[in-house]
Amino acid sequence: TCRARVAQRSIRYCDDPPIAVFDNDAGAPDPESHLRLRPARHILVLIRVRSLRSDSCQPERLGLYTSNDVITALAIGNDIVYVGTDSGGLNLIDATAPENMSLLLTLLPNETIYDVEIAGQTLYLTHDSGLTAYDISTPTNPIAGTTVPAEDSWRQIHLAGARGLITDNNGKLFTLDLAIPTQPITQSSYLLPGPPGGIAMNGNVAYAG
């Protein structure tokens, strides 16, 4: 059923290769609505999916934005979609009006963005030059904090309150001290058999696989 496909995250969103941002049908928060971000090629697609309590949950396209570069990572906050690319840096897309999305500004132009995460008012990017934290309390004017260089290019980042995890291209897993959000500090490390497909953290236990 449509409900099962939503729950299993296996919807065919549309014929285009999309990145999908879902919103619920009404303006009020809905615990059964689902937000999805899915990177694919050069196309950013915003799609509305009705509440799972609705009899009909047929996806509805709200808007489309075409990137000049291949999209590699995504995060969303304050009606801004943070779009990482393979050679064009991080594009901040104004999604206030999904039918007319527009580019606000670009951070780190000409760099590859590997991962994008947001925690509160702080944006974290892994990119060619390292890990950089930005204060986004004013969303249209990000202020760069500390950049942490990598031994061999940072890749994935996972945030867990005042701590986090980050991996590099060699498969080394590091813990992060995020007590001062815009000043991340790498701590202990563990060499994995290879670069992991995903990382997560639950309490004092880190997972990589």
What does this entry look like structurally?
This protein is mostly beta strands and 209 residues long. Helices cover 3% and strands 47% of the residues. The protein has one helix at residues 2-7; strands at residues 20-21, 43-48, 60-66, 71-77, 80-85, 90-94, 102-107, 113-119, 122-127, 130-135, 143-148, 154-160, 163-168, 172-177, 185-191, 199-202, 205-208. The model is unreliable at 1-40 (pLDDT under 50).
List the helices and strands and how they pair.
Elements: H1 2-7, E1 20-21, E2 43-48, E3 60-66, E4 71-77, E5 80-85, E6 90-94, E7 102-107, E8 113-119, E9 122-127, E10 130-135, E11 143-148, E12 154-160, E13 163-168, E14 172-177, E15 185-191, E16 199-202, E17 205-208
Parallel strand pairs: 1-2
Antiparallel strand pairs: 2-3, 4-5, 5-6, 6-7, 8-9, 9-10, 10-11, 12-13, 13-14, 14-15, 16-17
The secondary-structure class comes to mainly beta
Low-confidence stretches: 1-40
Chain-averaged pLDDT: 78
Q: What's the main sheet like? A: 4 strands, antiparallel
Which radius of gyration do the C-alpha atoms yield? 18 Å
Instruction: Tell me the overall shape.
Output: globular
- What's the order of the H and E elements? HEEEEEEEEEEEEEEEEE
The helicity comes to under 10%
Question: How would you describe this structure in keywords?
Answer:
single chain; 209 residues; mainly beta; four-stranded antiparallel β-sheet; 1 helix; 17 strands; 3% helix; 47% strand; globular
Brief synopsis:
The protein is mainly β and 209 residues long. It has one helix at residues 2-7, and strands at residues 20-21, 43-48, 60-66, 71-77, 80-85, 90-94, 102-107, 113-119, 122-127, 130-135, 143-148, 154-160, 163-168, 172-177, 185-191, 199-202, 205-208.
